Predict the structure.
Amino acid sequence: MKVKYLVAVTAAAVMIPAAGMVYNNTVTNTHHTDDNKPEFITISRAPSFESDFTKAAESTVNSVVCIKSFVDRSQQYGGNQGGYMDPFGMFDFFFGPQQRPQQPQQKKSEPVQSGLGSGVILSEDGYIVTNNHVVDGADRLEVLLNDNSTYDARVIGTDESTDLALIKIDAKGLNAIKVGDSENLRLGEWVLAVGNPFGFNSTVTAGIVSAKARSLGADSHRRNKMGIEAFIQTDAALNPGNSGGALVNLNGELVGINAAIYSNTGSYTGFSFAIPTTIMAKVVADLREYGTVQRAVLGITVADLTAEIAKEKGITATKSGVLVAGVADRSTAKELELKEDDVIVAINGTDIKNLPELHEQLAKYRPGQEITVSFYRDNKKVTKKATLRNTQGDTAITKKGDFSEIGCAFMKLSSDALKELGISNGVKVTGLKGGPFKNAGVKDGFIITEINDRPVKSSEDVENIYYRIMKDDSSEDKVMILKGIYPNGKKGYYAVNLAE
């Protein structure tokens, strides 16, 4: 009886002539049959490990920039100048070493460098994506390209809850990166991180995708005021200065924006986190078109389905998903007829195993778009369609500076108007409707010069102060103290209760 052994992998099969010998870099072996005649064994050689990352690195470095942030020295209040460094916690949202002024004779009006980060070129005409904490609080931004060209940048829009920002430089013919789909990433896939750690320009590090849709936890969210809960986790080495840089696959396609590390010291200790391009692409498109993010919500309170909860509630049809705990009125969930104890398992055919995955999928859509939601009720699968809504329960588009939560908009004043009123800064309240501002007695035309003792120069300042107040879990008082003046010269002071 003759016996054959066949090992099939991926390379071409070869015939092995003798035991223990090597021909043409092929490992050989034989098996002897009953009549003592050698029987050739067919073997396929697996391809060698591809460790050459040069193609991806070379196609990426010219698309990643260094961003320097500057603040007026008179506006410095100490600390980290708007960065989310967290030396006493576990997660750091970083953008680089702080540059403290060392020359006391420096003029007060001269800007000083406050931080250093990275950014990724998205278009040939100068649109660049970075982290919000890289640009937050900066009075001036300077962008350094890989060829050492330097440009001043202006902020197009920011989104604190996803920690993303879109800035623009006046340039043409830039090396725009190719944007890939982060949903196609697989665990164990090789990725490269490109950025400017500690100011070392065009630094490339390698690692693998170690987790997807990673939540950094409620404690990190509280300290860093971050809303995103769907990071790509890798072991590519990142350090301060990498924030806003590119995470790319081996095809040189952008799959994430580097944002955070897991650390007790502020330096890399083994884990890093990036914002997936599925979220980035939507946020950037909204910032470019509307100046602010159009955020869709289901209108539910939820919890991850655990084995304990499933056993308690008799859920046997699925072992993962998002458990509905409550449904808001005038919401998408209400239209879907979702009920308490339903388990959401898919959106538009994409599986939902936990809350971070739900966040990631919803972040791809705007209010007004229709989605299909699959869920289990009484261990039977149900699929329904509904239209997404915003936090106000409608599908209206939110314009930059239009705060539906506050009930008014804000208009920046011209230099002539400021001079006539004898003030150096301020924004005018317009389009006042029902809401906390009107309830506090604010009237159309009121010019806000300060909020909570902070100067207000633009609608972005009002927005940033508002969201800082609302996301500050350490304070129970959600109040804006407004100081300003009416066009007739009458001064006004208002306490706006945002908790109403």
Remarks:
- The longest strand covers residues 203-214.
